[in-house]
Amino acid sequence: MSFQPLVGQGGYAGWRLLARTGEAQKALVARDPQVARDTAHVRAKLGQVGSAEELVSDFRLLRTSLSAFGLEGDANNRFFIRKVLESDLSDPKSLANRLSDKRYRAMAEAFRFGSGGSPSANLAGEIVGRHVSAELERRVGTIDGNLRLAMSAERELKALGASASSDNTRWYNILGSAPLRKVVEGGLGLGADFGKLPIDRQLAEMKTRSGKLFGSDSPSVFAEASNVEKLIQRFLVRAQAISPAQSSYNAALVLLSSGR
Q1: Torsion angle, CA of 135/65/111/224, rounded to 10 degrees?
Q2: For the chain: N or C, fewer Cβ within 10 A?
C-alpha cells in the first residue's frame, strides 16, 4: 500500500504537523516502489537526453520531470511541452515567455534546450528531489486540499520574494497563478468579490492589504519565512472557518492542476 501522509485533523494544526515531520514523510514517499522506480529512471536516463524531442519520447522521464515542476497534467501534451522546452528564452515572444503560468518557463530554463544546451549534471538530482516533494503534496491533497495549496504556495512565495523582478511583475505573477492567488487572497482577507475587480484594482488592493499586514506593499516580504508562515496561517484558519467540513475540497485540486 502506498504511504499516506500524516496531517492529523488537517487545517493549521495539520500544517504544523507537516512542518515537524515533513522531511521524514518525504523519505517514506521516496521509498514507495513506484516513486523509487521513477526517480531511478531519471538518474539513469536524464544525462543521456540531448534534446526536447528525446525527453518527450520517454514517457516516464517526461512524466516525472513534469511532476517536478507541478505540470504533471501535461504528460500527454508532448508536442506542446516540446515547443515549450525549445523556446528561446531571450525572445519575449517565445512560447515559454508568453504563457501566463511561469512554471513552463522555469522548466524550459532548467533544461536549456532552447539555447542549444543540455541539462546540467545536477538537474537529475534536482528533478528527483522536486518530484518527491510534489508527490507528498499530491498525497496530502487527497486528505486536505487546502494543505496542498499551502505547501505549493510556501515554495512559490519564497521564490517570488527573492526574485529580482519588479514588484508589479511579481504581484501579477501571483494574480496569474490560480492556486497561489487562492492562498494570498485568503491570507490577505480579500473577499469573494475581489476577483470581479479590474486587474489594476486587484493589484492596488493586494498592495494595500500587504502594507497593512506586513508593513510593506512589496512581494519582497515573502523572502522572510515568518511572513510566509503568517499568510499561510491566516489562509488555513480562515478557510477552515468558512467551510470546516470541506477542508479537502475538490476546488483546491482543480486549481493546482490547472494549466495555462
Answers
A1: -10
A2: N
Say how far apart CA 20 and CA 159 lie, in whole Å: 22
Residues of the chain with pLDDT under 70: 1, 243-260
CATH topology of domain 11-129: AGR_C_984p-like (1.10.3700)
SS (H, E, C) the chain: CCCCCCCCCCHHHHHHHHHHHHHHHHHHHHCCHHHHHHHHHHHHHHHHCCCHHHHHHCHHHHHHHHHHCCCHHHCCCHHHHHHHHCCCCCCCCCHHHHCCCCHHHHHHHHHCCCCCCCCCCCHHHHHHHHHHHHHHHHHHHCCCHHHHHHHHHHHHHHHHHHCCCCHHHHHHHHHHCHHHHHHHHHHHCCCHHHHHCCHHHHHHHHHHHHHHHHCCCCHHHHHCHHHHHHHHHHHHHHHHHHCHHHCCCHHHHHHHHCCC
What's the rounded Cα separation, in Å, for the pair 75 and 33? 20
What is the Cα–Cα distance from 187 to 232, expressed in whole angstroms? 6
**Predicted TM-score of the model (pTM):** 0.84
Alpha carbons 186 and 192: distance in angstroms, whole number: 10
pLDDT given for residue 245 in this prediction:
46
- Cβ(35)–Cβ(64) below 8 Å: no
Cα–Cα distance, 100 to 97 (Å, whole number): 8
How many C-beta atoms surround the C-beta of residue 170 within 10 A?
Answer: 20
* Grid cell in block for residue 197: 475587480
Domain with CATH 1.10.3700.10 in the chain: 11-129
C-alpha cell at 40: 531511478
pLDDT at 260: 46
